[in-house]
Amino acid sequence: MDTSPTRHEPARLTRQDAAYVARLARIDLSDDELDQYAEQLATVLEHVAAMSALDTSGVEPTAHPLPLRNVLRADDVRPSLGRDEVLAQAPAAESGRFRVPRILGEAL
Amino acid sequence: MGRAARHGRVVVRGSSVSAPSPGAWEPVIGLEVHCELRTATKLFCGCRNAFGDEPNTNVCPVCLGLPGSLPVLNVGAVEMAMRIGLALHCDIRPSTFHRKNYFYPDMPKDYQVSQYDEPINVDGHLELSDGSTVGVVRAHMEEDTGKTTHMGGGGRIHDAEYALVDYNRAGVPLVEIVSAPDIRSAAQARMYAGELRSILMATEASDGRMEEGSMRVDANVSIRRAGEHTLGTRCEIKNLNSLRSLSRAIEHEIERQIAVIESGGAVEQQTRHWDEEGGRTVPLRSKEEAFDYRYFPEPDLVPIAPDPRWQKDVASALPSMPAERRQRLRDLLGSAGEPVTDARVDQIATVVELDLDSLVLGSVNAGIGAPLAIARTANEAAASPEAARAVDHGAYGALLRMEQDGKLSATQAKTVLGDLLVAGGDPADIARRHGFEVLEASSLALVVGEVVQASPEEWARFRDGEDKLAQFFIGQVMKATSGKANGKAVIAELHRLKG
Amino acid sequence: MADDARSAARPAPACEVAAQVRSGALTARHVVERHLSAIAELDVELHAFVTVVGEEALADADAVDRRVQAGVDPGPLAGVPVALKDNMCTRGIATTCSSRILDGWKPPYDATVVERLRAAGAVVVGKTNLDEFAMGSSTENSAFGPSRNPYDLERVPGGSSGGSAAAVAAGLAPLALGSDTGGSIRQPAALCGVVGMKPTYGTVSRYGLVAFASSLDQIGPFARTVADAAALFDAIGGHDPMDSTSLERPAPRCVAAVGDGVTGLRVGLVQELLEGAEPAVVAAVRAAAETLEAAGASIEECSIPEVRHALPAYYLLAPAEASSNLARYDGVRYGLRVDAPDVAAMQGATRSAGFGPEVKRRIMLGTYALSAGYYDAYYAQAQKVRTLIIDAFDRAYQHVDVLLGATTPTTAFAIGSKVQDPWSMYLSDVFSVPSNLAGHPAVSVPFGADWSGLPIGVQVLAPALGEAAMLQAAAVIEDGAPPLAPPGVWAEPLGTAGWSSGGRA
């Protein structure tokens, strides 16, 4: 049994766990939905448990399937979109800007 | 110590920070500076990078984060990030981008592309004008957010009814410079920020305009007992719009934390906002519980690894940084056998800050002693920095030569300099206009000879070693020349006669 | 030799249409009108399309005809109708990703592939239905209702690019584009009896493809023949400066390769790409292997055990990237907004109302896999397993040139039969996800049907940039495939080339 500290045994997800995840993901879910997703997530995590327990010590993670490096573009101005086009499909706009309900809590 | 070894001479450390007495409170400060880069376009798209344009006129699918859009990295931003790294003596490393995930309306993608565990610049340092050094942990690239304006309720965030968002700034390239917690006072913090600003401007990577937001400083402040090695709980202070607020806010925060602890409480880790009007820091409404940004490698961008050739090109194109320029002037003093006292340190700092080093260097090259050149430039020329930067170097050098050769007294030289700065011209003419006629060497010798003959007793005593009688003779010579003689020149002549 | 003659004679519907338009034998207008009629008549049953672009398509067709008349090269796909999966941005034309949260949104720009299609003279006739944000294997996750399999309207066409697959299978368009993140082109191609290809990661620009999982997504062609698929890939592939993950090396020119034959080609039949597949599917793969062998290829059985870990790794990596890619849908700048007194509440309510259950499920899963305390065990671990899989493929390709296996374990399943159990739906991707993790190309080629007449697809896999060899093998398999009857819902808009699967009309 792998007892490495970075491995995590997938416990049953509680409604509270699901609620925390939903807050991070900014999706409002009812209690029923939270319970349902908690259960479904736990099931998926059970299916991935074997992969999660594989010994990958010394294996480098793959972030990109391609060995590309240094993809750059010149610092040249290119046409922007027209403001009217940009705001035309805004749910709400005012004075050339996007309008949103008040923001509680500071920017980070 | 190490620093002296590096510079090859003993340096008397600047006195802006004195070590606290054992048991006293020691502030520990680190600064995070966000610096907007002066590229033509944004970090990941070709929209104009400009301040003050009409809202939402410099936006495109990429910087608006429209569905399907993808980022492509601006080579100019990478080059400027490298310039900053090199100016801060960092190692330039291969680096990657990560996503920092959180929700805020000024973030078009609701994640910010930044650098996390593999930043482009690491392990640098900054030498302050007083000689102290502050470590730079990292200087990494990231994209800026849009700008939110809170509306209704008197413009204060807490009473706002709604908000308006402008994405012109979204995607503008930033370099975030993180200092080590080496700063020990508000004054030193201010000096660090000022020095960093000079460096950023010297690299031409930034215009350093704090009031426009192109340079934003946040301070992390904690306190501990002198002698302790662990760090106390720190608070982050935001909304510092000028060097002055930076200094005031940190001072206030230090006092606040001391008061909290001395009254038996504990400092709570939090982010605080500097309230300029009220002169205090206030806690911000807490956002989310110790936020989980879920950093992961940005799949839409590939790693960058500037090759050694590119790094070398950037390094060789870099202009001299303030610290190097100050060092050059210190070296001149060293060559002249002069110690670098606190006063000299201040003079040198002034000369560099006002971009008057070329004036000093030009004079030294023309044969003027470094101490005189530096002193005159820092103390007198600096009074009118713009004029001083424009003054004719030949004329300046000629004036200093007149003083150095004893043809003008210090006071006289300062007067001539004043006129020279205001109106230019030839220093000899200016001197003549003031009646500072330079006494010809031969005329002076004549007068000295006459005075010596007129006072044989005093002359005998002077010849026998009573050097202080030189003052007597100087006085006599001054009487005879209506004050036009130069004291040093008289002494030189006396000694010449003595043989 | 006889095979060569047969492949040369086999009609290639799209290429043939283009040739006739280029020569003036057909007008693009006629071609497009006929296909629009077919769509109008049959899509009511299939629901393959979310948006049909009649006016613009006819205008585009007229432009092609004008070029032909002026003696200007109208492009290799002149006048050919193409259907686009509705997760590719089309300027001024609704792009919904089959989601309520983007209902009515019209992009102010075209995806690069759309620009390239137009440059090639193709005519976009509509946007096709998908599983919402490309998450699913059946189109049952579409906010607008599922598409139906032309072979059996009670069955799924597969997903997520089910609409595109159904459109091509039913003759509503000779060509379509889909996107493939875990099999979303290949699996519906198999279920609908058409060719579907996922190219090497980086060979087709993702600029304008609404992102699901950025390190896995690729746009690819649907067609009725391998040659047509190759022609479409050639038209849309190649480096794009707007996509940092786009390869500088030119996409392999594939049309030329098709028909080169497979003499001496070394083929590996992968045991793990047959495990759990229905008997009819296994039989089809083995028969396809025999076809290759008869044409001069050498077949060896091989085992790549690491492939078994691909599905769990995929179902951590893809949702993780998706959870970040879909954060932008928050009601602030475009799309659905559900009002609330403060912005966070507005965002929470908007996303709740705007996303369907599968999307929410994957966002939750992905967010969890990236969260503090779980990142190492889940996301980072999956990235490491990804490396193991890539290395395993590299080792296999030291002995063989291409690999062979099933595309998906079953034939088309009944609508509603897998929605209760997410993992049973995810299993549809078990043979397709390894190629996405590796960034390698893979193609599904129709190879007969099961006892009830439902199409079966077999999968050819190749190493990165190995499209030429892959398509050579695919063309031979297509040539030797048992005849596949046309679907129950089917049109021949031009009445010309006819159904060409299997090479025997």
**What kind of oligomer do you see?**
heterotrimer
Q: What fraction of residues of chain A sit in β-strands?
A: 5-15%
The Rg value of chain A, from CA coordinates, equals 23 Å
Low-pLDDT runs of chain B = 1-16
**Biggest sheet statistics of chain B:** 9 strands, mixed
The domain count of chain B comes to: 3
Helical proportion of chain A, percent range: 25-40%
What is the CATH topology descriptor of the domain at 7-55 in chain A?
A: Histone, subunit A
How many strand segments of chain A?
Answer: 3
What class, by secondary structure content of chain A?
mainly alpha
Helix content of chain B: 25-40%
**Residue runs with pLDDT of under 50 for 5 or more positions of chain A:** 1-7
Mean pLDDT of chain A: 89
- With strands numbered from the N-terminus, the spatial order across the biggest sheet of chain A is 2-3
Mean pLDDT of chain B: 89
Q: How is the largest sheet of chain B built, in terms of strand order?
A: 3-6-7-10-1-11-12-13-14
Number of strands of chain B: 15
Global outline of chain A: flat
Give the overall shape of chain B, derived from the CA principal axes.
Answer: elongated
Defining key terms:
heterotrimer; A: Histone, subunit A; C: 505 residues; alpha/beta; Amidase signature (AS) enzymes; 16 helices
Question: Could you walk me through the main structural features you see in this protein, from its secondary elements to its overall organization?
Answer:
- The complex is a heterotrimer of chains A (108), B (499) and C (505).
- Chain A is mainly α and 108 residues long.
- Chain A has a domain of 49 residues: Histone, subunit A (Orthogonal Bundle).
- Helices cover 35% and strands 8% of the residues of chain A.
- Chain A has a two-stranded antiparallel sheet with strand order 2-3.
- Chain A is flat, with a radius of gyration of 23 Å.
- With 499 residues, chain B is an alpha+beta fold.
- Helix content of chain B is 39%, strand content 17%.
- Chain B has a 9-stranded mixed sheet. In chain B, strands 5-4-15 form a 3-stranded antiparallel sheet, with no helix packed on it. Chain B has a two-stranded antiparallel sheet with strand order 8-9.
- The N terminus of chain B is likely disordered.
- The two termini of chain C are 19 Å apart.
- The N terminus and C terminus of chain C are likely disordered.
- In chain C, 38% of the residues lie in helices and 12% in strands.
- At the A-C interface, helix 1, helix 2 and strand 3 of A face helix 10, helix 11, helix 12, helix 13 and helix 14 of C.
- Strand 1 of chain A pairs parallel with strand 2 of chain B.
